[in-house]
């Protein structure tokens, strides 16, 4: 693809003859064929994002375990499975998804504060690589389940390093007040207890400090704290075969400038080498940075409506499709699919859901009228995966683009799909 018309920060999205394309495919044609709202993903963007991690880890023993909570659609998982990724999962449902997409179970790690016994059994039976356990109580339950099943569970304990990731409070996870991980000062005792249990094999240590992190410093801080603990734990005779630094690397939503994955890892590896840990197996769990800017959501303008204080641009995508603005006041760029001349008007772009929180963008200058299409950018992560049926809206369709080819990887959800599991009752 030529560089002409590329959107800044979105190298696989470009305007050609006024029309927005994802790789070689015009979004207007996809909207005509599949309707709106429609998620469209660039396969090449995902592979390039993964490539930055792979470059960063060249010559090292490292696993990139894609955190599928960011986008768990099977067609997306297949891209990463075929590229040799492991997966970070947080539920039995996510386990079923990665297995359906062809994952190697040995490279699946299971995170989350609330694993049920049945999820533990399911994961043991599948032969997953590691449970990232998050509490003393979970350690004891997992030990009991592993003994019942006659399959030892490999574990890593998630440490809460008490580091401020400088991101939105809802997506900070490594501070003392968060529900995640075990406290730093309890860690050695917890490891000793875990190592004494016959159903468990202690194999690693992990941390994850938050999401949409745009600076290297919180990672560097967390790394030093985790390595301090590794030294203290190994003094007791326990060997940690891998070090897992979680995910969290941010993307460019609105001129954000997170470090590139390879640049970040150059810095982190220098510290790991300096402290003598550079040859350990390393695991990372990136989600957003592997898919976020691969995706756009195409939506049709239903009405424009002048208001007393604000003008509204009412589109057919809503908070059930794109929950991030309502949940985190998140910013997503919104651009017309076909650019044209005309006076721009400042609108709040909102969906049809009956809540004032149902907005997608505020105060956006757009030249647009009913029937035209808009593209909501940076919609590859935490959009479809967090979509709901609120207002009995069917979930959108999804298309994966590779070069000139467009593959429908999820058909639009029908009302029959939604009603199937319900009963009128007696
Ligand atoms: N590992 C663990 C244990 C996690 O909890 C998460 C994300 C990740 C990895 C992946 O983090 P990422 O690389 O995607 O930042 N819905 C929110 C983000 C929630 C993140 C939850 N945990 C949003 O839309 O901003």
Keywords, separated by commas or semicolons:
Lyase, Ornithine Decarboxylase, Chain A, domain 1; alpha/beta; nine-stranded mixed sheet; 426 residues; 12 helices; 28% helix
Structure, described:
With 426 residues, the chain is α/β, with parallel strands linked by helices. The protein folds into 2 domains: 5-43 and 292-419, Lyase, Ornithine Decarboxylase, Chain A, domain 1; 111-286, TIM Barrel, CATH 3.20.20.10. 28% of the residues lie in helices and 26% in strands. The protein contains 12 helices and 22 strands. It has helices at residues 27-34, 43-56, 74-82, 92-100, 117-126, 136-149, 187-195, 217-235, 261-274, 288-291, 324-328, 415-419; strands at 6-7, 10-16, 19-22, 25-26, 38-42, 62-67, 86-89, 108-110, 130-133, 153-160, 182-183, 200-206, 242-244, 281-284, 295-306, 311-315, 334-336, 345-350, 359-366, 373-376, 397-402, 405-410. The strands form 3 sheets. Strands 5, 15, 16, 17, 18, 19, 20, 21 and 22 form a 9-stranded mixed β-sheet that branches. The protein has an 8-stranded parallel barrel with strand order 6-7-8-9-10-12-13-14, surrounded by 4 helices. Residues 67, 69-70, 88, 111, 171, 173, 208, 211-212, 246-249, 285-289, 324, 328, 382 line the site of ligand LLP.
Write the layout of secondary structure elements.
Blueprint (H helix, E strand, L loop, with lengths): L5 E2 L2 E7 L2 E4 L2 E2 H8 L3 E5 H14 L5 E6 L6 H9 L3 E4 L2 H9 L7 E3 L6 H10 L3 E4 L2 H14 L3 E8 L21 E2 L3 H9 L4 E7 L10 H19 L6 E3 L16 H14 L6 E4 L3 H4 L3 E12 L4 E5 L8 H5 L5 E3 L8 E6 L8 E8 L6 E4 L20 E6 L2 E6 L4 H5 L7
Parallel strand pairs: 5-21, 6-7, 6-14, 7-8, 8-9, 9-10, 10-11, 10-12, 12-13, 13-14, 16-18
Antiparallel strand pairs: 1-2, 2-3, 3-4, 5-15, 15-16, 15-20, 17-20, 18-19, 21-22
Helix pairs in contact: 2-9, 5-6, 8-9
Bound molecules: ligand LLP.
